Amino acid sequence: MTSLRSFVLMVAALAVMPADHARAQGSYPTRPISIVVPVPPGGAADFIARTIGAKLHDVLGQPVVIVNRGGAGGTIASASVAKAEPDGYTLLLNSITTHGIGPHLYANLTYDSVRDFAPVGLVAKLPLIMMVNASVPAKSVAEVIALAKASPGALSFASSGNGGAPHLAGELFKRVTGTDLLHVPYRGSGPAVVDLVAGRITMMFDAAPSLLPFVTADKLRPLAAASAERNRLMPDLREPRLGEHTDEVLGALKRGASDAA
Question: What is the pTM of this model?
Fold first, then answer.
């Protein structure tokens, strides 16, 4: 299973269009293509989908429509694509949440993450970054731990939804550091970041695309990159320095979601 230190986004179609079907229709594509995104506008996946859509339009010469369908860890979007006509015109920007974690977290899913989809290609790996609201007095991860232990349950962390990489990273952080943080799930990174910037939430693990504009505006403070390498968008961030917990937390993040279960 993919590591908790990053999202992995892939484009998947309901099915590969058969060659004889493609010949019958002429050269593919002959009409607009839809990319279903399992989060609301404003999140990292949404930014990436729109970038990909623009490039596909340039290459294929057909409009590419971005359809945001958030909720239930992306399983609502996945279910809708699984029911679509298998003609190659409905694509899904799926992730570890929709196709890796979701089948183990949500009961009675109406789709099979392997059987009902055909992978098209790997799109991006998005390393997680630990971020706090700029008004939080903590200037390091160790200081966040100290604040949390001084007031158990008083600090909160946001996520893009139950079962996603940001949620599991936060729960793993709590477990390894022995802290009590309140988890507040949202329907995607976009609305979660809005509340983080407003100060209604203390911290969040998320990818850089949805966070960087607010870091530049000094509304959010990045503390650590949960990745083996420096984040190219935030090169000054080092790996988490957690005092006595450094090796344990970093090692757990690198081992991945299977170790957090």
Answer: 0.73
Q: What span, in angstroms and rounded, lies between the C-alpha atoms of 40 and 46?
A: 7
230, 8 contact by CB (below 8 A): no
Structure tokens, 113: 């993450």
For 258: left if phi > 0, alpha if psi spans -120 to 50, otherwise beta; the answer is alpha
- Helix (H), strand (E), coil (C) string for the chain: CCCCCEEEEEEEECCCCCHHHHHHHCCCCCCCEEEEECCCCCCHHHHHHHHHHHHHHHHHCCCEEEEECCCHHHHHHHHHHHCCCCCCCEEEEEEHHHHHHHHHHCCCCCCCCCCCCEEEEEEEEEEEEEEEECCCCCCCHHHHHHHHHHCCCCCEEEECCCCCHHHHHHHHHHHHHCCCCEEEECCCHHHHHHHHHHCCCCEEEEEHHHCHHHHHCCCEEEEEECCCCCECCECCCCCCCCHHHHHHHHHHHHHCHHHHC
Residue 71 burial by Cβ neighbours in a 10 Å radius (0-12, 13-18, 19+):
middle
At 69-107, the pLDDT tens digits run: 988 878 889 999 999 998 889 999 988 888 888 888 888
Distance CA 32, CA 261 (A): 41
Q: Are strands 90-95 and 6-13 parallel, antiparallel or unpaired?
A: antiparallel
pLDDT digits (tens, 9 = 90+) for 28-72: 899 999 999 988 887 778 888 999 999 999 999 999 999 999 888
Q: Give φ, ψ of 76 to 5 degrees.
A: -65, -45
Amino acid letter at 120? V
